[in-house]
Amino acid sequence: MAYDDRFMSLAIELAKKGTGAVNPNPLVGAVIVKDGRVIGEGYHKKYGGLHAEREAFASLTEDCTGAEFYVTLEPCCHYGKQPPCTQAIIEHKIAHVYVGSSDPNPLVAGQGIKELEENGILVTSGVKKEDCDRLNPVFFHYITTKTPYVVMKYAMTLDGKIATKTGKSKWISNEASRQRVQEFRHELTGIMAGIGTVLADNPLLTTRLPNGRNPIRIICDSHLNIPLESRLVQTADEIPLFVAMLDKEKYILKDKISKLKEAGAQILYLPEKEGHTDLAALMKELGARGIDGLLLEGGGVLNESMLREGLVDEMRIFVAPKVFGGVSAKTPVTGCGIDEVTEAEEFTLSELERIGNDIYARYVKRR
Ligand code: AOF
Ligand code: ZN
């Protein structure tokens, strides 16, 4: 029987409800259909909790023998925090499974589908694959690299400025665009900024969303210039704060280190690269601490280093209908820059939206 797009779309909408709560695991939704009617639905609600498939079975309103099963991600076939979902599908005598994305988790990777087929269940994969894949760029990246998926975000004027020549930046984008950024902070596990931004703006880097989850805050601060009285340090005992500094300076800066630790901050000691903390090493360190996704909020020097190191996976850009001018007005990516056009990292436009009079564009790295 031909599949019905509407059921996979429903599974996708269900999956999104887990945003911010399932990391580093994937967003997954599932729908059980009998005679064209939905008789069960579920999504992965919380890290470590039931998988979407078992949530759907738990919600059944009638017997599902011979039913169709729509799931946004290939069902797992291994024992992790949860037992294999393939087992539940087989036990419930499902006739046909429609799968959206394949699961790159080495413990699954095609084995889930194979097991279903070996048990006489029909499987159609790649159903609304692009839309399903769009749910989990962070999971796909993290499960295979063990480093965070990095999203660079900024708001700029029509002439590419992020502040006026006197440094004023409140506000460039409109309120609805700024609200969207709060959602990113809820969505991604970590948020990172350079020390320059901390000294200039004294930011909190939290989520101002009702029931929002605060990201783990990471500051790149080679020489530990972060002020003890900054809002970041002042809130470090409640909201995690990591400060990444140069390993070779840990002895000269030991007093400051102990004060920061006392305030609740964690210090990450990193090797040096071109005078700064080695960013690739930092990404590994963050990955090892379970940070699967990272919102990069500048400043320009850090943005440029991250791009040049090839560590940016996605860009989320807001363009506001204003022009600031001024040679000295700040731009989003500074640093030393490149010489040749061909050296530039290329991105693919993956989403384009109008938010009032602002443009919101999302670009992903070309692989
Ligand atoms: C989820 N939720 O709905 C599905 C997942 O340690 P576990 O048992 O939670 O297993 C995690 C793996 O299970 C995950 O990496 C992915 O490969 C697979 N599917 N995971 O957290 C779900 N369907
Ligand atoms: Zn599972």
Overall number of strands: 16
Return residue spans where pLDDT drops below 50 for at least 5 consecutive residues.
Answer: none
Task: Write the CATH homologous superfamily of the largest domain.
Answer: Dihydrofolate Reductase, subunit A
Number of domains: 2
Q: What is the string of helix and strand elements?
A: HEEHEHEHEHHEHEHEHEHEEEHEHEEE
> Largest sheet, if any?
9 strands, mixed
The CATH architecture of the largest domain comes to 3-Layer(aba) Sandwich
Bound molecules: ligand AOF, zinc ion
Query: CATH topology of the largest domain, anyone?
Result: Dihydrofolate Reductase, subunit A
CA-CA gap between termini: 35 Å
> What is the residue-mean pLDDT, rounded to a whole number?
95
Quickly name the level 1 CATH class of the largest domain.
Alpha Beta
Strand content: 15-25%
Radius of gyration: 23 Å
Sheet/helix structural class: alpha/beta
- The total count of helices amounts to 12
